[in-house]
## 1
Amino acid sequence: MAQDYVIEMLHITKEFPGIKANDDITLQLRRGEIHALLGENGAGKSTLMSVLFGLYQPEQGTIKKDGKEVRIKDPNDANRLGIGMVHQHFKLVECFSVLDNIILGVEDTKNGFLQYASARKKVMDLSERYGLKVDPDAIVSDISVGMQQRVEILKMLYRDNEVLIFDEPTAVLTPQEIDELMEIMRGFRKEGKSILFITHKLAEIMAVADRCSVLRKGKYIGTVDIANTTKEELSRMMVGRDVQLEVQKKESKPGETILAVRDLTVPSRTHNNNAVKNVSFDVRAGEILCIAGIEGNGQTELIYGITGLEKVTGGTVTLNGKDITHASIRERSKAGMSHIPEDRHKHGLVLDYPLEANMVLQRYWDPKFQNKGIIKYGEVRKYANRLIEQFDVRSGQGPITIARSMSGGNQQKAIIAREIDKDPQLLVAVQPTRGLDVGAIEYIHSQLVAQRDAGKAVLLVSLELDEVMKLPDRILVMYEGEIVGEFNPKETTVEELGLYMAGAKKQS
Amino acid sequence: MNILANIISLTIVFAVPLMLVALGGMYSEHSGVINLALEGIMVIGALCACFTLQGFDRSGFGPAHPQLAMLCAILVAGLSGMVFSLLLAFAAINLKADQTIGGTALNTFAPAFAVVVTWAVQGQGLTTIQIPNWIRITQATFGLPAGNGFLDSLIFKYFYLTTPIAVLLFFVAWILMYRTRFGLRLRACGEHPQAADSVGINVYKMRYSGVLISGFLGGIGGLAYTIAVGSGFNASVGGYGFLALAVMIFGNWKPVQILGASIFFALFKVIAAYNSSIPFLPKLEGLKDKSSLYQMLPYVVTMIVLVFTSKHSQAPKAEGIPYDKGTR
Amino acid sequence: MKQKKPLAENGMLIAILSSVLSIIVGLVFGAILLLILNPAKAGIGISAMLTTGISSLDQFGKVLYQSAPLMLCGLSVGFAFKTGLFNIGASGQYTMGAFFALVGAIQFQLPWFLCLLMACIGGAIWGIFPGLFKALFNVNEVITSIMFNWICMFLVNLLFANMPTMLASAWGASNSDRSAALAKANPGAIIPKAGLDKLFGNSSWINISFFIAILVAILVWFILNKTTFGYELKACGLNKDASIYAGINANRNIVLSMIIAGALSGLGGGLYYLAGTIQYVMEKSILSMGFNGIPVALLANSNPIGTIFSSLFISYIQVGGSAMQPNFSSESIDIIIAVIIYLAAFSLLIRGILTKILSGNKKKEVKA
């Protein structure tokens, strides 16, 4: 049966030093379809699309366009074949204007000098036609994330691309913006464009895709028609086993207030308004409280203010009755706070230190580990070994392994081991499962629940709605620096949360 | 009044090397490579140009066609600086080396190389290369009578071909950076090389261009410095390669502001030279070795200026970070 | 359970091999350069460079004597590297240290060990500036250091000119462009020889400064690797954000580490100028000893114990370099040093290549 495939990627193998990112993968895109590419983190989806877009060259395999074999050496070749890509981390030059970003690489010139008139007209025409509102002269660093994504899409349309690749496009959007994007994609499909859409979110695939190909650990698992499949089947193909979609936990029995935040105001580093505006809430012993919201609404600054990484300009933070608003980070740690940071490479670890040195990062000054300024490395080694055993932290050479060479999951386990072993009253965990595979996620969730059952207060910040719905006992939604709603996860829905996260609603 | 004319013309002649080298640094950094080797590039440019001038002097071509010879020397300065900068480009771009260390290596190499070569050519102990007198543009070049008035001092006391060439290069540099496709792509490579790569721009080639342009401008700057100092080339450019970097930072990596900053700094250098003639400067009776005090001035002023401008620097975001295609 | 690393992963071995490789390439380059410049005399030049250092006890004494300030400058640059900073201002700190030492010796007639202490203080003061400007105003520390190198040179000249007791002319000599000879001005300030000169064939150079330097190297090693202070400094250098997260005061540590680095370079200046054989001449260009601390640190990969050996090497070829005159200028040695620095810039790459070669040649080890 002859199929009209606009793109075929046949037996593609792409290797990087030490890892086979794509292992003999075959992907076929029909003309005019929306084809989802599903897989966990590290499955190889982005790599495969980067090969298609000419950013990487495969070690083996061929690519065919409209049945003819082609070689795509760089993005220019891909563009010439009509292939375009919207990247997960936008590839926009922040200090350039929207127009400059769109024309970069395909500029109109006369004797080398830039000509803007015809480019401007074409951009505005495309913007009208597809409902992609942009301001061509705005500087990219000044515009919203949603508009930045529209610029990325216009980049593709400007180059008359017919095959459009979207790499995790919804990670930075509100539920309403996601619906808009789906509509835009359906519009493209009606015009006969073909779409490849990378994601790990099952709901989106079920909503908009025609077919879905699944990758797992670099290998191709299979392709299914969305009409004939279920979320459970896709999930099973993605991880290779039945996934625990629910978190097992007992009813929570909250005790006294451990953390009290009152009228907290924290300035922003990037703009003149405050990032956190008069925020107040409590976290009690024996409960998990989650701050939910779209990235960039002040959650980062809120945590920085509570943990001491940023100075607060108003309000108070009280831990077990003690005012720590202006205390140093070390004082907060001694007062019973532990912090699993958002960025494990930036804050959580000194990557070039060995594992054992990282294990004592928060406690090297304790008399247990030093005497008159001289570190007792024997004690450090014993301590590290105990934590490695207890928390199953895997590494090449045990405590002397350099942290940089450990996997993301094990690096995170090391941080969690260190922070939990401090036996804190308050455990602050910011996106603790970001970028980890399902096995590691399950483990970390169970650790957080165990802390809560042991009577600790857990303050969680998460961007993953799945996690927000199943892990905490209470949810607070943050929008533009303020708490706009409090919810019981058992009594609310993702849609309702989405409305609050987008600022469409607010509890008074 | 003539003193004022002298001061202005001397300021211009000292501002020229600062501006040229700072523009060179700007090109390099806008493409994403920190060029600490400007000091060494200036030395190499000056070395080769001065030998060229000596050669023209001896062959008689120089005195016969002074400005043509001078033009050749300027080209030699630029080209030799460009070739020398290849070493930095190769290390920083292909080998992804530490750009600070690479620059330091070249800065160590250049003066030593200059001394060794000069020693070998001129003989032991003669480490200064003299510059011939005919390179100066005088009234005679234009067929005008010699004079001593204000205008004569202003225009002709320190008039060398490098000055109008520098003005020309300033405009070329500005237009190239902000009005052409090349400039747009170059700046993209220094701000967000992954973005540039994803639209098909060859980041490596662009960065090579940035460094080579900085080598070209730096080499000419070395010659211009040697002319400004006047006593011949002595394997040193007095830290001007680093002063130029300060000018670049003070000028916020933009050509017009760099021009202003160069004039500002050159003024302080000149005040040192004229300290006894300027009426409103403190006399400082009894202080011995006043010249050391005045020679310190440009560096002290640089520090003060940097204190005020560094907080909000708009350095190219990706500068100093080697570009690796594999990183995403 | 004892952990044993396979050869290819033994970082220290690879680093040493990488340094040795840089040295060989540098020497070969220098030899080729000499051959090009003056083929007839090149052979004499090369052999002078390579053998003068051990040609006599006196010369070897000179090697040891000169390696002491080099070692200290190397320790200074290396210490700063470990804490994430490039101490290109070592020259200024060295000069300021020398100045303070001489002031202590001539102006205040102090004994040598107090003068050395003053040298540390002088260098430490000058070392504060790059760290302070960086921490407070975000000024690039490389440019600050270089500006302060120049400021120091002019400042010291200015101060000397206005402190007549410091000059040689005040102590019976005819010239006023240099500091007084310590033999006349304050013999008690000269660093003792402790009989070493007899050991080295009545060498006029050797004194105990070499051993002082080694003691300091060991002290620096101890601080970096065994103390909480060293733990904090290295953490700041490797990841400033993580050290803030850990409650470490990163800005304070940056300034402290530059103070220590400055003190080390300053001590080097003191050791050199209190030997009694050298007088401080009003300079027109920045003293090169501080800059030479950079290749010393790079060759040793900033390891304090390694610095002992790399400073001996650089000192050795420098002694050879001065013996190469009049056929070749001693700057030829600087060219070799420049090549070594250049290679150090991509040492990561060299180490990667060496690692690949080593792991390819070995059979696969089975991990416990």
## 2
Amino acid sequence: MISFSPTEEQQMIVSMVKQFATDEMRKIYRECDESGDIPASIIDTAWQMGLISNSMPEEYGGFGGEHSAITGSLIAEELAWGDLSMAIHILCPALFSYPILEMGTETQRKKYLPLICDERFKAATAALTEPHFGFDPYSLSTIARSDGNEYVLDGEKCYVPLAAEVDFLLVYAAENGSSQCFIVEKDTKGLEISERENNMGIKALPTYELGLKDCRIPKENRLGGSSGCDFGRILNHSRVALSAMAVGVAKAAFEYSRDYAKERVAFGEPIASRQAIAFMLAEMAIEIDATRLMTWEAAWKLDRKEEATKEASLVKAYADDMVMMVTDRAVQILGGHGYVREHPVELWLRNGRGFATFDGMATV
Amino acid sequence: MIDFEPTPEQEEAINTAHKFAQELFRPTSRHYDEHEHESPRELIDETWGERNKGTLALGLDVTAALRIEELCWGDAGFFLCVPGPGLGGAAIFASGTKEQLSRFLGNFNEGDPKWGAMAMTEPHAGSDTAAIGATAVRDGDEWVLNGEKIFVTWGKRAVENPGSLVVVWATVDKSAGRAGMKSFVVPAGTPGMRVEKLEKKLGIKASDTATIVFDNCRIPFENILGNPEVKKVDKSETKGFKGAMATFDATRPIVAIMAIGVGRAALDFVKETLGNEGIDIRYGVPKQKLTALERDIMEMEANYKAAKLLTLRAIWMMSQFQPNNLEASMAKAKAGLAVTKITQKAVEIMGPLGYSRKYLLEKWMRDAKINDIFEGTGQINMLVTARRVLNYSRDQLK
């Protein structure tokens, strides 16, 4: 039955995450953006909430809760409202564990999932994006070819979060023209992790380029074994997660600029009482809500195991535009004050522009 | 639980309404567009019958909204001919007493087709409904109504068909401003109420849009909706006006879902035409690889979805008895504009097929535009949305 109300359990998780975002993330996000560093303590505190391990089966050390893209979207929005760099960091291990949980062989699940369900934060990641114009996840330049008992990976990746600190990661590569996924361990010969990247936004999040040169991995490291994985579904999960995060970033910018517009007086009254400003805010609010509902709908389809490529890609493209529009307007509403780093809106604008580039950097 | 699946009953409602739209509405759509003011009698009788069987019930709930999308996919002008209590009924539901509900609407579904209209707009009071000049003066146990109302949807049908009714807004005390604004039920056939003219319009031509004149029109005292007393309140308060506004919270999402039906008609036409030409829309492909056409279609589809979800949320909230003033205005603002743009883009994309009256697309573009105008223009809905998100009164944000 058509309904727009999260379950009680979801509401509890949301309010817990929101509290964390308010009390912890919002206290230090500017500092983190300037220093490029997120304190390990905050990541560990976030980890204690069990946002990922909650949805892992008990046999792999999780808490046996249901894995739901809707719940994941609600969490992702709140975390991104707190701070996008930290949100991606906190949820990064899911990039590795969710595809294995859903599509891995039993051996792969047994081997890797318990490592992620540790009591402390355990970094793991995935490499999808490639550093060239025209990047297309369905037509990857990184190649996997079968050679005896091994797969040989060749290519380059970028925007791989936390790559320098992980023991294993998923690498997406084209195998006979279709995108597949491979588990690669840190010390594999031919895997080279480059210097940390410098980006316009998400500056607190360490991301890396990596090279794969004649990188040989055992045959059994192909995700899903001989049957492989449903790459489209993995990508759709990622797009839903990123859409939810875009909503979170946009909401942060909307709230801040709304409050500012009510405080800032010009020509004798708050600028919010002028339609030019008020209508901008109204449209921002409408588009944020619309994107959230579209995100939920795509997540709902994923939870029902239905084909969701159309929904996920439509909402992702919509969210990319929406978050740019909203964060840009937030800066505009603050005027000169929006341009200086004393206020957070310029940070949200830089982070907001990233979504058009981000693909496969978060999942639910 | 967040859920987007219609119930089996809702699926059935959608299918039934779609069948009507397809088989009853579409074949005569063009005829009535070209013969403005001709009444689609057969369609009226048939929908009246179905409606009273419950198969086309058009209340204020999610199921009804899903039906309305289908009917407007068929023809939005015809949807506005489907008999029923309509906006007049909505006003009575919003602020009438139990006794009034039973007196005015109790037998509404019996006998011949009936319509319930709402007469609010005046030549000099459009969206600024508080500037209304029509008057209601008490004379013993009667009210005497005087004034002119324009743009009354299905006004002619409501004035001329026995058992129908018009809810008219008039002031009982001009000096009291909005607090003096009251609504009155005028049954069809009441002396002193007459149709002065029918508008010729850009679209929804099957729907009659009437000017109604009240000339010393006398109605029983009990026909006032809400409290007859004028409570003088602070100018910034809108208490005296609550009835009208509560009605809008209910009707704005309905207009939004009407728009959405028209938008989907246009989208379906475009996609079907492209399909016949062997053109696939490649979802999931990166932006830099998409054609301009694919980008356009995806943008149209995303906006359709955005508008529909906002609208269903507003209607769902109403069915849950949650206040939905903000969400209703958001939905109406988004849907009115989104569908205006979708249909205009569709005509552009389809080229000669879009502009020609051989096809219905150009009609849908003309029909769609009304949804960004009636029940509050897009701008008024932005204003309401803005006030709500800013928590501003009408004096703080004009």
